[in-house]
Each structure stands twice: as structure tokens, then as C-alpha cells.
Specification:
Distance between the termini: 45 Å
Number of strands: 9
CATH superfamily of one domain: HAD superfamily/HAD-like
Number of helices: 10
Largest sheet: 7 strands, mixed
Length: 232
């Protein structure tokens, strides 16, 4: 028998790359609606959100403010409630995906790629969202569970998940994959580290920082706007 070839890997960011919003944003808003987070949590990110909507501030600043609000208030939430709300969010919005990346995922899966999702959203909600699309493995933020199965507010091994390139390298070694012919898809500068690793980096709906990097490195840039897909 011939030697089995290692599968090539395809790496995807999730929020804004596959999902047409942020899973974290939708989760925070759902937790507020369920009275699991206080109503005034919005004050942490309202100003940044307004500036972004008015195109006076960046999306990164808005997301950073949302993350700060989330971390500041999740301590004490029972994990069962957290997981239930995450499941409900995906049940309602799991099909809110971009056509380009949805079709690319299907194509790569048929071609035998190992599909890897690497995100800074909570792994609890990613584990509801990503398997529906056919992903083989998902990395995301894992929140520490303390006494009485309540969240402590801390992230387990946060330094590891923040380094997406390190996560990809770990997955390639652990799953016995190959970077030969590999594909990577991301939308912000937090994805640059793994886009530099793959053979075929794709910057999808990139923000300004990633777009500049894409132009410097001659990476593919794809934009999906309404029902039109542009390759720049």
C-alpha cells in the first residue's frame, strides 16, 4: 500500500468572514435580552458603536469595547444558561452567512481539505455554528468555569488563542496535516499571522489594515457586497 498523504488545511476566521456579523455581538445582545447581563452593559460600547455606524471610528474599536463589556459582566453566569443562549443564537442566525465563503467551504471540503476555524469568539457558540458548515475542528475562547458551574470571567490559556498562527501550527502537527496547497481566509489584521503561513491567503471583506497588508503581499482580495462578489 502507498503512503497516505497528509490532508491540506483550509483555515477560516469566522466573524465577518463567514458569519455576517459577530457571534460575540449577537451573544451579548441575547444575554442582555435574557437578563443574564445587565441592561446598562450597552454603555460600555454604545459610543464606539455609534462612531462606527457614522463612519467616524473603526470596527475594531467597536469590537474591543464589546469584548470589554462582555468580560466585565460574565462573572457569575451559570454555564448552562450561557450555553443555552449560545445555542438559541445559532438556531436563529446560523444561516446568516456570506455566499462566497459558504461556497468556498463546500468546494474545499469536496476537494479533501481539513477545515479549521480559528476565532476569538467564545468556543461555546462556535461549537454550535461551525459544525453545521462542515468544519473538522474549531478553536475559540474557552471561559473558565468555577464553583457551581458559573463563569469566573477568566479565559483559559488566553495567550494561546490570541496567536492564530500558533494555533494553526499546533493543529497541523496534531492532526497530521500539511500546509502545502493550504488556504486561509480572514478579514482583519488579527488574521495576518495565519494568512502569512498558508499558500493561498484570501482577504475577504478586509478592513483597512488588512487591505494594506494584502496589497503589499499581493494577496487575493475578495469583496461581497449585496448580491455581487468582486475580486480585486
Amino acid at each position: 500500500m502507498g503512503r497516505r498523504m497528509n490532508k491540506p488545511v483550509a483555515v477560516f476566521d469566522v466573524d465577518g468572514t463567514i458569519f455576517r456579523s459577530s457571534l460575540l455581538i449577537e451573544l451579548v445582545e441575547a444575554l442582555v435580552a435574557e437578563d443574564l447581563l445587565p441592561k446598562d452593559v450597552e454603555r460600555y460600547y454604545k459610543k464606539a458603536h455609534t462612531k462606527w455606524k457614522n463612519r467616524e471610528g473603526g470596527y475594531t474599536e467597536y469590537i474591543d469595547a464589546m469584548v470589554a463589556a462582555f468580560y466585565a459582566h460574565i462573572k457569575g453566569i451559570h454555564y448552562a444558561d450561557f450555553a443555552r443562549v449560545a445555542e438559541e443564537v445559532v438556531a436563529r442566525q446560523g444561516k446568516h452567512t456570506y455566499k462566497y465563503t459558504r461556497d468556498l467551504i463546500k468546494k474545499l471540503r469536496k476537494q479533501g481539505y481539513f477545515l479549521l476555524a480559528v476565532s476569538h469568539s467564545p468556543k461555546t457558540i462556535l461549537d454550535q455554528f461551525c459544525p453545521r458548515l462542515g468544519f473538522d475542528k474549531t478553536y475559540g475562547m474557552v471561559y473558565e468555569i468555577g464553583p457551581e458551574d458559573r463563569l469566573t470571567g477568566d479565559v483559559v490559556d488566553k495567550h494561546l488563542i490570541l496567536n492564530k498562527a500558533a494555533i494553526v501550527k499546533r493543529a497541523v502537527e496534531k492532526e497530521k496535516l500539511t500546509l502545502d496547497g493550504s488556504v486561509g481566509v480572514g478579514d482583519t489584521e488579527s488574521d495576518i499571522s495565519f494568512l502569512e503561513l498558508v499558500d493561498n491567503p484570501i482577504c475577504f471583506n478586509p478592513n483597512a489594515n488588512l487591505y494594506r497588508q494584502a496589497k503589499l503581499n499581493e494577496w487575493d482580495v475578495v469583496v461581497e457586497r449585496k448580491d455581487v462578489i468582486y475580486e480585486l
